Description:
Strand order of the largest sheet: 5-6-7
Number of helices: 10
Shape: globular
Largest sheet: 3 strands, parallel
Number of strands: 11
Structural class: alpha/beta
Mean pLDDT: 91
Number of domains: 2
Strand content: 5-15%
Amino acid sequence: MFDEIDIFENDIREQYPEVLDILLRDHSTKENIFWATDNYQDLGKGYDFASPISSELITGQRGFVIMPRVKKDKELQQTRVRDMAEVFTPSWICNAQNNLIDNAWFGRENVFNTEITNSDGSHSWQINNEVITFPKGKTWKHYVRDTRLEMTCGEAPYITSRYDTTTGEYIPIENRIGLLDRKLRVISENVDTSDEWLKAAQTAYKNTYAFEWQGDSLLLAREAMLFTFIENFSKKFKKLPVLKSIKYIAYIISWNIWQMDGMKGVVPNSCHDKLTQELFGYTEKSPCYGCQKEIITKHNGIYCLVKDWGNKDPETGKKGRKIRFIDLMKYI
């Protein structure tokens, strides 16, 4: 399974009990993520735009429903480009842009790899196989804790490059260039015990965020991040992580990779007309004020929640304070 770009939901359900249900959670609505696309409505009840995605809808005989964009029908790909501006970025561009972030953070270039333009005009990269060194005043732990966010993430190619989302080519762990891939590489280079590795990996995941509109792409992103964890642990320690560790990483992912309308900060299509009953039986319809005036703090939809893992929640007293994503915008 680890060299397949398509992660099969049947396999997740059978090999890792409860994990698929965790990956389908939406913490803002306290339900599951939903399709947010009409692409599946021909499959029948439960596959329309507003329906939540349950594990029953994508496993068993329907285990083929969720698949990476590159494996979708060409006509469907074009429809999603036209209707939702869904455009996936080649891995070499993801790498070049991620390199710009690291150039600034490290204060030098070619830290993880060197970008290459081949004789035929194509692009690739050459991995730096030396152990990553850190600038004065910074350590590998600072890098792991550095917070990164991918907007409208699709299948999250900037976070983990398990495969090139435009060609479908599988990318081995040692050649990956995602934001999370780099953090896990640094952890593996500096940690030798599984307990310490797991703790550091949890920190890396807690500091990696992304959001996406369409439910199928969101699930693919979450699955890719989960299997990136399993693959890196297995490569380092020559065994699979225990189910408890896999479930906790899935839980972190379910919070940090969420479904959102990025223009409004709310669950997609959750804004609505407000109906007010007037005298004599008349009903007045008032549109969402935030939508009408384009004010992000005035929507009547469901504002998306994320977790601030480093601070305590006032309700529970435990670390992991819930906060509306739009309340973080003052820090951006």
